[in-house]
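Internal ticket #5521
Category: modeling
Description: The requester needs a full-assembly model to guide mutagenesis choices. All entity lines are attached below as received. Residue total reported by intake: 757.
Assigned to: D.W.
Attached entities:
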Amino acid sequence: MANPATTSLWRHIGARHLIVLAFVLLLPFVATPFITYQVAAQSLVFGLIALSLSFLAGYGGMVSLAQMSVAGMAGYAVSVLGASGTDSSLGWHWGIVVPLALLIAVLASTLIGWLSVRTDGIYTIMITLAIGVAFYYLVLQNYTVFNGFQGFQKVYPPKVFGINWRDPLPFYFLALSCAMAGYFFIQWLVRTPFGIALQGTRDNARRMNSLGYNVIATRVLAYAVSGLLAGVGGVLLVWYNGLISPGSVGTGWLINVLVIAVLGGMKHPIGAFLGAAVFILLQTFAIDLIDRERFNLLIGGVFLAIVLFSPDGLLGLWAGLRARFSPKQALTSTPQRRQP
Amino acid sequence: MNLNKRTWIRTMCAAAAVAAVSGTAFAQGAPLKIGLLATLEGPFAAGGADGMRGAEMALNQRGGVVAGRKIELIKASSNAQPDVAVNAARKLVEQDKVEILVGPLSGGEGIAVKDYSKTQPQVTFINGSSGAQATTLVNTSPNFFRFNTDGAQWMVGLGKAAIDKGFKRTMIIAEDYAFPYSQVQGFMAEYCRMGGKVPLKAWVPLGAKDYSSVIARIPKDVDSLLVILGGADAVNFLTQYENAGGDLPMMGGSITVSQDVLNYKGKRRDSLVGTISAGPVADNFDGADWRAFVADYRKTYPVSAGGFPSPSLFAFAYYTNMKAALDGLAAVNGDLSGGQARYRETLSKMVLKTPTGDVRLDANRQAMGTTFVTEVVKDAQGNLSTKVLRKVDNVDQTLGLKKEDFQMGTRDTPACP
């Protein structure tokens, strides 16, 4: 390990990283196909979409509600350009369709960013919510391209290398590799000059401006990056469901992505995946724990309890526990804001 | 210490009790799991809850046991969205390992669950109350059965009743998905043939809250409205139409004049009296089996416990389909071996006794049964219910037309402006 960069990388890997890695690699071999597919893979997919939001919000200070819409645009692009059960789909090869879908997601996200970076706080939320709802009504009422309420059925991943990528095991590893790529990409990105500049604009945009940084450009670029993550998540989501309909990009899901990100905590990329896992577990199993007609009460109660007792989500709980037992370490990876 | 000892004794007693109970269950053979999927969220939440009541009733009538095997119902909820319905069905099939699944409730869900059923050949899927034609008409699945008639079958007879009432030009207001397409097709096939005109169809999104733009578009020269909206949507439309001063006579789709809508509180409620409609149930139908069914429903689910004054269409459809599932099980003596082949064979050939008469399945495993043309009346207690104008028996899926002549309903077909 002569290379100092490699050494520092290895030093960052602790026992908990190895435990998590072993867990996610071994999980599909011990869990049932149902857990692998519906719980684990779905959590990874929604984690990726939530990661795009927690990157924007946690490191850029911009809460966008349109992340699910960006994911939905990629999903709709795959359905419209690729093959589906509907005649109006063009049926192009997946090798063209997937990059195009991601490109569309990045472009759309950049546009959304370009529109909304001039606003702050609650106004960003409002403008992105408006864009999300507009997209929902567009796909709901447009029949020539988006096939209205019915949406697209039978949108399946392509068979590559003779593997059916919709089977639980292959799909899980597909989702896992995308999720890990997204996770490490964000981990790396926030340490680059761009990532540091982005956090600077979050903490004090005016000072960054006077230091010579182009605040608008930095923020729009952050939107583009988040569009890529959401786009990958959207493509995986449409393959996971095998269908897409306006309900997938409705207001409920716009908010759910925010709920996932807040639940997990936005100070670290892992929060998005933790939040997604808790969210999907509750959605799937709450009905077994409580009276069938009241299970949404339990879901809401848990969310409320987490946010109430730990404003930083699950990550905050974890940090609190660590602080209690080993008070000298800080968990957050983001550089702490220092007063001069 | 004392406390610990007491806890220990209690635990032991509880464990012994559990062992005893599970022992008896084991003596009867392991319980047979049936999944039950309905919408407990979203626009059809009230209907979904009533569907669950209907299915439970069918099971209660057999004391929860079929052919010596205890039946365990495992419920799941969706919100009328196809992806949510498939996720819930997947949980029931792959996690809870049900052997038979009854559901879902809504049209788009039915098509999605039917597509999913093809990937799970070891499980028998029996519909809940979804009524889209496409579910059993195109791309059929060998293990998906539907013992309720579909949305188009439910509207047979309404076209003639409209002409008889003197309605020459009708505007249609319907939700924009597969089930209302079927309902509109069932109505228009007859209405247009008999000389009626439909100058405008307004398709509104499911779950819409604001109908002002639709109400503004109602042409001056129509003499009636056909409203095919369900649950909360119907109530919202009726309230807003009332506030806008609308007074055209109305006809209703099968789920528009169901009990879950008729019992909403509002002024427009009284003006619903006289509305004609058609559907698989009529509250005041005089058949002995129907009266027994209603009496049983009222006894088990009194209004004070959240039931409706009379079972809704959803309760009826879920009851029928669950009854079919259980009758079939009884006929094969609980034997689901051999990939459920004998069970499915029995289901396909069964003549099912329902509260409204006998039901048979066609080659696509789709029910042929009875439709009622009804009119809304108000009883002495002020409850609204539906009275039978005409009863049409043995309605098949192509509405008596030849297969070649039959067109499945879409947004644009049929048309007679």
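Resolution: model delivered.
Comment from assignee: Chain A touches chain B at residues 32-35, 37-38, 85, 137, 140-141, 143, 148-151, 153-154, 241-248, 284, 287, 292-293, 295-296 (CB under 8 Å).
Ticket closed.
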